[in-house]
């Protein structure tokens, strides 16, 4: 049985860009599991597996559908205990969760200022409009205003 892996892409389906999807891709590789990649653009996400999640990654393994990279990793370790472990026990799970949350609050905000316009350009026309509207609403300013501060933020990021 092949695992379906919904992976976020822009106009070029060969260039996935989501770090959350990368985590799932690495977990599948570490476990030695084959998966069929389903390139998924932003506007397609609400249709994935009947709308199971507002985000990807999502996997389908037989009848089981799992969303969220961390939940997928937990599922893969439970479903395939004979394969190499992703966490090595409860301590590893806790450490992985800590590192994930730390990076989301420490690294991701600055990376957003660096990558935002590049990610916008990677989308086709319809997804580009969605990306701009949704990100500007979330961030409370135009994309160009968000990325304008990236040089000033670099010293703090490096520190």
Give the helices and strands, then pairings:
Blueprint (H helix, E strand, L loop, with lengths): L2 E6 L10 H13 L3 E6 L17 E4 L2 E4 L1 H11 L10 H17 L1 H14 L3 H15 L3 H6 L1 H9 L1
Parallel strand pairs: 1-2
Antiparallel strand pairs: 1-3, 3-4
Helix pairs in contact: 1-2
What does this structure look like?
The protein is an alpha+beta fold. The chain has two domains: 3-87, Glutaredoxin; 107-158, no CATH class. Helices cover 53% and strands 13% of the residues. The protein is built from seven helices and four strands, in the order βαβββαααααα. It has a four-stranded mixed beta sheet with strand order 2-1-3-4, covered by helices on one side. α1 (19-31) links the parallel β1 and β2. α1 packs parallel to α2. It is globular and about 50 Å long. The N and C termini lie far apart (47 Å). The mean pLDDT is 95.
The total count of strands amounts to 4
Which stretches are low in confidence, meaning pLDDT under 50 for 5 or more residues running? none
Order of helices and strands: EHEEEHHHHHH
CATH topology of the largest domain: Glutaredoxin
Indicate the mean pLDDT: 95
Provide the gyration radius in Å: 17 Å
Distance between the termini: 47 Å
CATH architecture of the largest domain: 3-Layer(aba) Sandwich
CATH homologous group name of the largest domain: Glutaredoxin
| Helix amount | 40-55%
Can you count the helices? 7
Kindly report the spatial arrangement of strands forming the biggest sheet.
2-1-3-4
Quaternary organisation of the protein chains: single chain
Domain count:
2
Q: Main sheet?
A: 4 strands, mixed
Share of residues in strands:
5-15%
CATH level 1 name of the largest domain: Alpha Beta
- Overall shape: it is globular
The SS-based structural class is alpha+beta
């Amino acid at each position: 049985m092949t695992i379906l892996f919904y992976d976020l892409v822009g106009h070029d389906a060969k260039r996935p860009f989501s770090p959350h999807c990368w985590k799932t891709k690495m977990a599948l590789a570490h476990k030695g599991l084959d998966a069929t990649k389903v390139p998924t653009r932003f506007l397609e996400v609400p249709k994935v597996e009947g709308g199971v999640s507002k985000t990807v990654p999502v996997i389908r393994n037989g009848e089981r559908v799992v969303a969220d990279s961390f939940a997928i990793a937990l599922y893969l370790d439970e479903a395939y205990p004979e394969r190499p472990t992703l966490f090595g026990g409860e301590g590893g799970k806790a450490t992985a969760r800590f590192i994930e949350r730390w990076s989301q609050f420490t690294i991701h905000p600055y990376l957003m200022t660096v990558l935002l316009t590049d990610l916008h350009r990677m989308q086709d026309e319809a997804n580009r409009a969605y990306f701009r509207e949704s990100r500007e609403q979330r961030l409370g300013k135009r994309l160009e205003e968000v990325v304008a501060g990236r040089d000033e933020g670099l010293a703090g990021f490096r520190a």
